[in-house]
Amino acid sequence: MRQIVLDTETTGLEWQKGNRVVEIGCVELQERRRTGRTFHRYLNPEREFEPGAQEVTGLTLEFLADKPRFAEIAEEFLAFIDGAELIIHNAAFDLGFLNAELARLPGQGRIEDRCTIEDTLTLARQRYPGQRNSLDALCKRLGVDNSQRQLHGALLDAQILADVYLAMTAGQSEIGFGEVLDAATAPGVAALEAVLPELVDAVRPRVKVLPDEAEAHAARLAALEKKAGRCLWTTLETVET
Fold first, then answer.
1. What is the pTM (predicted TM-score) of this model?
2. Residue 183: pLDDT band by 50, 70, 90 thresholds?
3. Catalytic residue among 40, 89, 152, 217, which?
4. Which of 105, 141, 159, 212 is deepest in the core (most CB within 10 A)?
């Protein structure tokens, strides 16, 4: 599964008031591992910052004056994210701004037309109800280092969010598995291959379960697959009640 962890910085809190994107940061994951590919651009917003927004990012109009407009990088950005699952913290905020930028361009549609979305804020609220679920709070809870986050920066925040997301959705560790190893290099593969014929020929016990148990089992595996990106499962044989 290809995933893109995405964050933006903006001139203010509401795109409806004409605020614009000033920075986009993306980190690519493939099968829950960083690929090393990133997308990072500063943008000329062609407008002033709202009060307080400049202090959050540390960006200035002078710094952004010679940076490209969104229209100039839109094609490259869309090619980078196209077809991926986007991992975004408080997705409605970033999607609202990005879709507003795309609406200024002819025929580009919406981000949701190109990508599926995983909102880590929604996920965190499900995991930790009643607790603070800001990015900084999640870093503290999950042991993710955010010591470099003195100011908000899109690429840095995307990198931190990638660590938070992987820690928060470590589905395989929940059932006692470590990282998935390459089958060709995993220790003990040769020994396992040597005994496989015996295992195949052996008489193995068969477990039958009730239909409601099988349904619960399938739901659990589906949840693990969503979090881990892959899941190996066994078909259960049910018995009638």
1. 0.71
2. very low
3. 152
4. 159
